[in-house]
Amino acid sequence: MDLMTAWTWTDDFHLLEAMNELQEELEEKSFGDLTQSIFLQSISGLIQNNTTTISVTELSGEQVRDNWQNFCESLRKIIDFLSSEINCSHIDFLPFQQQVVALTKFFGFSERPTADQLKELKAWFWKTSFSNRYSTGQTTDKMNSDIERIIEIRTNNFTEIRKLKYTTTKNELIDTKFSKANPLTRSFLLLMVQHKPTDLVKNMKIDITKSLSEYNRKQYHHIFPNEFLKKQGFPTEKIFSIANFCFLPADSNKQISSKNPSEYFFTLVPDNNFNDILSSNLIPLTKEIYEKNNYNDFLEKRAELIIAEIDRLTN
User: Fold this and answer.
1) CA-to-CA distance for 67 and 25, rounded, in angstroms?
2) pTM of the model
3) Contact 175, 235 (CB under 8 A)
4) Which runs of consecutive H residues, i.e. helices, occur in 49-138?
5) pLDDT digits (tens, 9 = 90+) for 85-136
6) Contact criterion met (CB below 8 Å) for 78 and 118
7) Distance between CA 82 and CA 152 in Å, rounded?
8) HSE-up of 45 (CA within 13 Å, CB side)?
């Protein structure tokens, strides 16, 4: 049911028109695919601190009209925050659309957030990104809880928000298949961006804006190449492990092609900057792994590095 049609209109405010205008603005900023349910829950959360269907249906047209400008401005601030602080400039890379609900509440306050409040918000973003928080159970209860934590952050009460923990494990990173449809993949890509990754071959900073402007498989690289691992008898699920991917432009990817790690790590990766290049991609520095083409050891060590980076971002 289109819940918006149940709301009351006034002569000077037509919500469907206002929604269409906002949708066009979001499309221009690559956030046009927010679902209608997230829109409604965000509005309800902003006005009533509640995202249940009952709460949404209880909203009046007057309430929406009176808070519409604040809601629109909050969404603009969310996009700016995600782009500038998280390097998420396209909705395709947002781990969970449900995160927009709490962010709407955070930026709906009239006071500018303090540095400490923004720090706690960023930690919350990474904790919820690397969790199954919105994948199971009653998501409205969890979004309502998020709103409570956001209100606490905005009143400088950080006690409860700091108790929230991420749930992703090393084994999950190894066992989960790299796919845009998977929230863990999207979270992993955003985490990688925080390290300002360097091209493995050219030793140049990768244009992350291009890599994250749209989902393009050619911008991602199997660190242990697909064809090499197939010949070694590894199953597809393990070949496409999240822990086996990094950013890499198509031309450098083509140079590496299906070469063994024992070959390309020592002929194509610049030796003078070997450690810096690998560190920027959260790739293990132990050369013995690549000399021996030890994929299992590589996955273990890479997953440990990723977990350590999650720890850094959430503490």
Assistant:
1) 18
2) 0.93
3) no
4) 53-58, 61-85, 99-108, 115-129
5) 999 988 989 999 999 999 999 999 999 999 999 999 999 999 999 998 888 7
6) no
7) 21
8) 32
